[in-house]
Amino acid sequence: MSGQYTESIAKSPKIAPVHKIAVVKTVPKVETNKFTAVSFTGQENKYNKDIYPKGLTEDMKDILKDTKSDNRHTVILNKTFTPDASTVLYDSIFWGPQIEDAMPQGYGEGSAKIWEQYINDAEVVKMEAGCGRMQNRLVTFKDGLQACVRYRQNTDQIQGEIFSFYVGRLLNLTNLAPSVVRIVDLKDKLWKNVANDIAAAQWGSNRAVVLTQYIPSLESASIPDIFRPTTRHLNKYDILKMSLKENDTESKHILIDKLRFKDIKSKSEMKNFTYINVKLNKKTIDKFLELAQWSDLIIFDYLTANLDRIVNNLFNYQWNVNIMDGPAHNLAKKMDSGLLIFLDNESGLLHGYRLLKKYNVYHSLMLDNLCVFRKRTIDSLQKLFTSKSVGSLLSDMFHKKNSIVIRDILPSLPEKNAKILIERIGSKPGLNKQLTNTTVLN
Prior knowledge:
Oligomer: single chain
Structural class: alpha+beta
Helix content: 25-40%
Distance between the termini: 22 Å
Mean pLDDT: 82
Strand order of the largest sheet: 10-11-12-14-13
């Protein structure tokens, strides 16, 4: 078995290696003739009753033994497993290196800083309709790069967009395109070339807008089957089932494990596997890469209470049962890498929080059934959960990234909203369990 683990047990008999669990067993004494005895009852004094050819493997002998009354099989629980390149899942809940190492790069903190610096010196030379709502605009800069500009009459939608982006940065998510806030000012070199276009768009001066890096080659993203109403859960058993199904790994060893589990006194021993090591094919890796990003999306949308993505699909399902089969709202996928892009986050943190009484059941629905996470996301959440400082972190980020001119026009996130965010980080029992335990074994 690939992967590394250390184990300590009280007994000293010979240990036979098996897959998924380790067992202490007593090996029957081998006769000197060409036959050897195997007991169906597991009793020493019955060994001379059941004779099988000497060539029978130890695994098959062990399968044939009746262990229901045999207490010699001791499951080793105090083991420490070290994930390696073939690990799909570990600690029962975390995506393993085989998935994490294949994740698309996305847009991290470095990308965000580069975009900020770029906008500081940029000049818009063209504005055209696009990027969603009527007053939004697709702008083109001098060098040909483009951005989507979000313009809203309500300030809280601009706050929701940019502070949701900041929350994504605190969680180390790489699925949100780099975004910055700027003020519409015709004296600013950013806008001076497009005064007529701004007037045609009916933009008011001294209004805050969000400029988000335009990402080409996007396609719609569908809701994975496992998150649709007939299933709607993701746990380690789902990962194991998909790993075996897609990779045709029903090998002799796995068959032996299955037969062995039938004879183990407590079937809970089978449920207590904590890791999966199997070499996946590309099709399965791609599926798991998408599911890993969905685990981040579910957490992100729950924390920010985004109304305009999966909650939109879930809410409308009561009138249109086919809506879950269509594209997910405000979610796209890069054609070249499979990176999911979380679009349109303006309802997060403010508008979404005001409507929690009506929509929180839909926010909770997905998270309550999610049991597989990215370790880096949980680590980031754990820091926020422990420090209770997410409000001050967001405020500091807002002040460092934006000039006093911007801050005079666009308020920071209200303190009451920061408190709601803190409450949501620690409010779900399933998620809270992961944040209060460094290693979870079920």
